[in-house]
Amino acid sequence: GGLITLDSGFKNTGACESKITFLDGEKGILRHRGYSIEDLAKGSNFLEVSYLVIFGELPTKAQYEKFEKDIKRHTLLNEEMKNIIDGYPKSAHPMGILSSMTCALTAFNPITVNVNDPVALYEGIVKIMAKFPVLAAWAHSKTHGMPLNYADNSLGYVENILNMMFKIPTETYKINPIAVKALDELLILHADHEQNCSTSTVRIVGSSEAGLFASISAGVSALWGRLHGGANQAVLEMLEAIQNDGGDVEKYIAKAKDKDDPFRLMGFGHRVYKNFDPRARLIKKAADELFEDLGTSDPVLAIAKHLEKVALEDEYFAEKKLYPNVDFYSGIIYRALGIPVQMFTVMFAIGRLPGWIAQWREMRLNKEPIGRPRQLYIGEPLRPFVPMDKR
Ligand code: CMC
């Protein structure tokens, strides 16, 4: 082989050409298929953005209605999936449940989503769009000892997520349109983010010609970690810790700056954004609007704002260009919607699903080769084998 360039963490390596998402980290710009994230957050809805991200164009009314209808046709899961979920302890983390249940779908839908067959490809896409939120809601129900609900196909995509999570058989769960609006916007803001850790995982797994569902399941696992999607859970736990510690924001800023202390300011910093994450800006505004609409408040929002202010005025954060990212304020919204902290990353996964699908589809349609990074070997040179009795 030729010369190998080492680039740990792929900080400077482009892995593909893509037409899906444009991101300018210096300027803090994010666009999907050419549309600004601000316009999409304001004027669109999650299902429409999903269609756009996956297929490349905004849907016509007929295309949108067909997409929605086709998704609704696939919201049932094979009842035997319940045997699998029954096996989990209640203490299981919902991300672990979601990842493995997504992979379990392959057993009941043994389709190989053939990218050269547009009908099969479309079928695979609507199936995973339909079934994934059901699995996410089941992960929530399981860990709360609640009954497993199915989608109510008279409801919209985002309404259904809340309904499946919170509906209990003895009561009518009244969906709050304010909650639906807030969740819809959050999901839009998570729809895609080019070659991040989970998306790269989906592409790499898919590049071996593993199926769509298996690739997405791997993406869920990649998202789980606290340096990636798991940061939204970590942020809220951090804000609560600060609150319980008397709200001493400065102490935590000092800890984050201390190189001997492993603590990092969760929800701050980004591999690509060296400026405000445009999603964080929109989410902060959405949080303010939500509390106004609900007529409630949350003391951790004030702590988060204080923390942001102190960090942004601090030399350390300025020098390293560390700004709030998408995960900094999102958890505060989830919490206001009654979503438990362990479910935050699951909500992120529902939002990122269209991005994973779009990137998998693009990768396969582009006939990209198998993802297979190289390495620089720095281990032992050849040495003679020593039998066990001589060691
Ligand atoms: N608090 C304190 N210091 C930080 C932070 C932070 N949150 N983030 C980066 N730094 C410092 C880091 O210590 C390093 O300093 P030095 O140059 O002195 O060694 C410098 O800034 C550069 O950081 P890095 O770790 O080399 O940057 P990276 O691109 O490898 O990591 C990151 C990016 C997002 C993993 C990192 O900023 C981080 O750990 N942030 C906290 C976790 C988080 O919020 N993750 C969510 C990311 S956004 C959306 C998502 O993926 O979910």
Automatic annotation (TrEMBL):
Q: Which reaction does it catalyse?
A: oxaloacetate + acetyl-CoA + H2O = citrate + CoA + H(+)
Q: Which CDD domains match?
A: EcCS_like
Which pathway is this protein engaged in?
A: Carbohydrate metabolism; tricarboxylic acid cycle; isocitrate from oxaloacetate: step 1/2
Which top-rank group of organisms is this from?
A: Bacteria
This entry's Gene Ontology molecular function terms read: citrate synthase activity
> Which family does the entry's similarity section mention?
Belongs to the citrate synthase family.
Q: Output the PANTHER family linked to this UniProt entry.
A: CITRATE SYNTHASE
Task: Name the chain's protein.
Answer: Citrate synthase
Q: Which organism is it from?
A: Namhaeicola litoreus
